[in-house]
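User:
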Amino acid sequence: MKPLLFVTGNDVKFRTASTVCKSYGLEVERMSIDIQEIQAHDGETVARDKALRIFEELQRPVLISDDTWMIPALKNFPGPYMKFVNDMFTAEDWLRLTEPLADRRIILRQFVVYQDKRRQELFYTDIDGMLLKEIRGRCQYPHTSLTSFDGGKTTVAERITQQRSAIAESGKRTSWHDFCEWFTAAGSTPDRKAV
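Assistant: Predicted structure:
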């Protein structure tokens, strides 16, 4: 089977997709293209638009992934704006902001969208994590120095520096699992109504 084209410039997202897809016997290849993303208050709108615009540019089936990060104690801040906030915040800023919170949950709402000329299929999963009260590990995504998906044993940043996927290795179900099950059950030409 021909590899699936996953369009992303994000090493972490590619590592997660590759790890999960491989467990289903699927291979993903990576391409990075510059595309102006729309801004919206919900990640689904952003993900659907991105998939459609990338498909229109490449004219071949594509996969995209988009993340929304929600901290319930902060009214689900930063939502779909994590990339922008991480460009402004340091790990120390995240620590100062979240240290007083009693509710330490952080939720990754992970969107995966498959787009071809006949259909668009969207998969999303909420993956529960926790915010630690100490900085552990450093990488280009400052919030990950406090974020853990394995009950505080490791942070996402620590996994990233080890070239590992904190999400794929957490044992938690992801949108990639849902996509892989749909794709392998439906085959490469699934009888699905276009969205």
